[in-house]
Amino acid sequence: MNEHLEHLTPPLLWRHFRTLCNTPRPSGHEARLVSLLERWAERQGLAHDRDGFGNLRIRKPASPGKEGAPGVILQGHLDMVAQANADHPHDFTSDPIETYVKEGWLHARHTTLGADNGLGVAAALAILEDEQLVHGPLEALFTLEEETSMAGALHLDEGWLEGNVLLNLDSEEQGEVFIGCAGGADIVVEAQLPTAPPEADAIALQVAVTGLVGGHSGMDIHLGRGNANRLLVRVLRALETYDIRLVDYRGGTLRNVIPREAFATLVLPADELAAAERRVSEIEQELRAELSGVDEGFRLAVSRLQAVPDEALNAHASRMLLAALNVAPCGVERMSTSLPDIVETSSNLGVVSVEEGRFYLCALVRSLRDSGVRDLADRFQGLFELIGARTRVEHAYPGWNPVPDSALLQRFQRLHVQLLGSKPAVKVIHAGLECGILAGKYPDLEMISFGPLIRGAHSPDERVELSSVEEFWQLLRALIEDLADAEPSARR
Questions:
Q1: 116, 139, 145, 146: which one is catalytic?
Q2: 30, 79, 173, 344: which is the annotated catalytic residue?
Q3: Is-contact 269 376, C-beta < 8 A?
Q4: How far is it, in rounded angstroms, from Cα 2 to Cα 98?
Q5: Could you confirm whether 157 is annotated as catalytic?
Q6: Torsions phi, psi of 216, nearest 5?
Q7: What global pTM score does this model have?
Q8: 377-389 residues labelled b (16+ CB within 10 A) or e (exposed)
């Protein structure tokens, strides 16, 4: 499948990306791809090994005469976000990604594309295979489970990597280079809430929010896109005047994806049905106006169910839960005062569910300041303690502090001007790159992050601009060759 990819430029990179598209690799299911890459490395005569967690490293010796050059680490993550449109059945553990080209962009059919971070991985593999490239010692580091927990980077063995310079290939903007990123943590909230049978005259409804764009919970959090969990909770709160009680709820699938869909089942007195349906129609118009220009596909639907469930949250638990969800931090919390137009702190209500009284929430909080992450985590805990829920913080990872005067950055800027005729914008990103974690384990590494132009990451709208991949490849090759002529350096 995806034979057309091998006719794109640069062919070596796209051939490897085709392999990634054809090899299922959602987070936690990277083992097949790791084995495939190990076999590829052996055919290429390249050394490979894994650390204690299973992260993969492939090494290539320096070109003759370049043995003393700084060692370069090419870094990316093997996993991809698994998101498909609701009407498109796709098993990310067994089905390949089907791609197509339209108007200069590569897309996937009804699913995420996996350009994040498949193109970075493909570029690193292509560099290892490029026999025309003059280079110093090379290491390609491929981490696991980045999209769900950063676990690969968090558990990376210390003292394992040998290089002096790390090129993170997991950025998504053309003409930009990143030198810092936000840290973050998962906030997990759970509770067993009391239930009771519905009233004798109760009827059941399903309320659904669908058609939203969604997107990356860091890169896109400032764009005003609708969060399906936030919107559906608003709808349910507005219906409380009709004595509704929540039966079940499911919204979102991943904590780092802005939820595109959410569904709730509720019960209410039969004589309130007509009024409730009118209110839903009013709310739909209100929300459609709010989302105009950013989420034109928004849909709010209500449908009556034939069977009435045996149990629903009792009235008090239903009201308390919806109140807590309604005021939970969601979206941009604070903009940076020192970095123009950069989000400093945010929260994403990524996954919410209620089933048989069991409530579960997973939010991802991000901040350029570790104190911002701690503050939001404390606010979640304080809020949900009021309804008797348990809150825990998981998979916390540090931010990446910028070094704006690094020699590596200056080298990249010079090459960008020479090759592309413009100086790259130097940025700090409101997303969780693995650089912050790696810097904590290897504090002497110089590092930058750059990549091709990707839009709609973490959603089925994900796409990459083909011309930007050519520029990315040109820059990457030039930087590695330039570093091969640099003065020998040892880890400080």
A1: 146
A2: 79
A3: no
A4: 7
A5: no
A6: -75, 130
A7: 0.81
A8: bebbbebbeebeb
